[in-house]
Amino acid sequence: MTGRAAVAAVLIAMFLPGTARAQTIEEQQWHLAALGVHAAHATSRGDGVVVAVVDSGVDDTRPDLAGALLPGAGFGSASGTDGTEDNDGHGTAMATLIAGRAVDGGALGVAPAAMILPVSVGADGDKFTTASVAEGVTWAVDQGADVINLSLTSVATLTPDLLRAVNYAFDNDAVVVAGTGNDGEEHVGAPANIKGVIAVSGTVPGNGPWPESNTGPETVLAAPARKIVTAVPAAVVDTGYAEVDGTSAATALVSGVAALVRSRFPDLDAGNVVNRLVTTATDLLAPGRDHATGFGQVDAVAALTADVPRVERNPLAPPPRPSSTAATTSVGALPSPPPVEVDRTRIVLAVGGLVLLGLLVAVVVLLLVRRARARRAPAPVVMEIPPPDDDFWRTGRL
Q1: Catalytic residue check, 41
Q2: In CATH, what number is assigned to the domain containing residue 127?
Q3: Which end of the chain is more exposed for a tag (fewer CB within 10 A), N or C?
């Protein structure tokens, strides 16, 4: 077992002679009751929805995910793989929270009938670059992902590559969900801070804010983030299960609820799915949106059953720019204007002036180009998204 696996080792005692039956994994997933997942399954289980998990990969040998994985892909240091190798365990843990099948008493996901599209953006738990994450998001969109789960964050306030990829997802009707981060700071980095993304913070049993969540005005929703039981590769934890902490887990849970809504209302576009999640959330702190929990904790049952009017666009997106096209009106034929006498001398002088001005501009441009070439361009800064640290994995007895 690896050092992380030793920290995260989970002991399962299904049946012991002379003792009462131990809880199943599903029974130990306290977040299911907190979000009303079992009640929500009477209405929707996520059928027909594809959730892309852009992460460390998803282990295709986990029984909890049997029949849940689509053919995936790898980018960055995972380039050339099919997305089903996960030596870190993070991606498998997130995928299980979204679509775990609860096989033989195992872990149950929020949307157990949804399909997972595994997108690995880092091998062996290496740091992810924003460039590889952006590639993964773009690829997932091209494969028809309905929801894109980004249980990762960077310190960057803006990254053009992620911005382009996320906007591409919006343009193709995908719901994008990302975590706010786990440093307990008033800072939400990319991609969660991109307008239109559902930025997710954490809660604890009793619906209080998880104090380690990053917070800020970009926070949209909250979900359970402490001692969340899920499945991991046996190569990471020999029992195959662990408790995890963090907004990564909260993000996956919200992605699962988004999948339930997309399945229940297949005619709704992504903007209206986001609107349902936001308007039906359970307000936790002061009335209205706050920096710690956004609009409140996601409510699976209310999101599926409440009467929510349709909206014209994603309520988290910036307002559309006004059209710059001037309106034109049709008018009748006008009488021809009287002929105008042309002053040839003035025309010659005007043309000559324009030629001289053009020559002057050309000289200035040439000087600027030569000066730019003489200077060496600085090396580009590559933003990195670190893998979860040991605090993500918790010691626990299940």
Answers
A1: no
A2: 3.40.50.200
A3: N
Name the phi and psi angles at 286, rounded to 5: -60, 150
Of 31, 55, 154, 213, catalytic: 55
Number of domains composing the chain: 1
Share of the chain above pLDDT 70, in %: 76
Q: Which of 84, 58, 348, 395 is nearest to 232 (CA)?
A: 58
Residue 326: inside a domain: no
Task: Indicate which residue of 31, 41, 90, 291 is catalytic.
Answer: 90
User: Rounded to an integer, what distance in angstroms lies between the CA atom of residue 208 and that of residue 202?
Assistant: 9
Q: Is the pTM of this model over 0.70?
A: yes
Structure confidence at residue 233 (pLDDT): 95
Is residue 55 among the annotated active site residues?
A: yes
What pLDDT digit, counting tens, does each position of 88-112 carry? 999 999 999 999 999 988 999 999 9
User: 24 is written with which tokens?
Assistant: 């199943």
- Full residue range of the structural domain in which residue 175 is found: 3-318+384-397
**In the predicted model, is pLDDT for residue 76 greater than 80?**
yes
Selecting among 248, 255, 290, 299, the annotated active-site residue is: 248
Asked whether residue 269 is domain-assigned, the answer is: yes
Q: Would residue 187 show up in a list of annotated catalytic residues for this protein?
A: no
Structure tokens that stand for 341 in this block: 């006498």
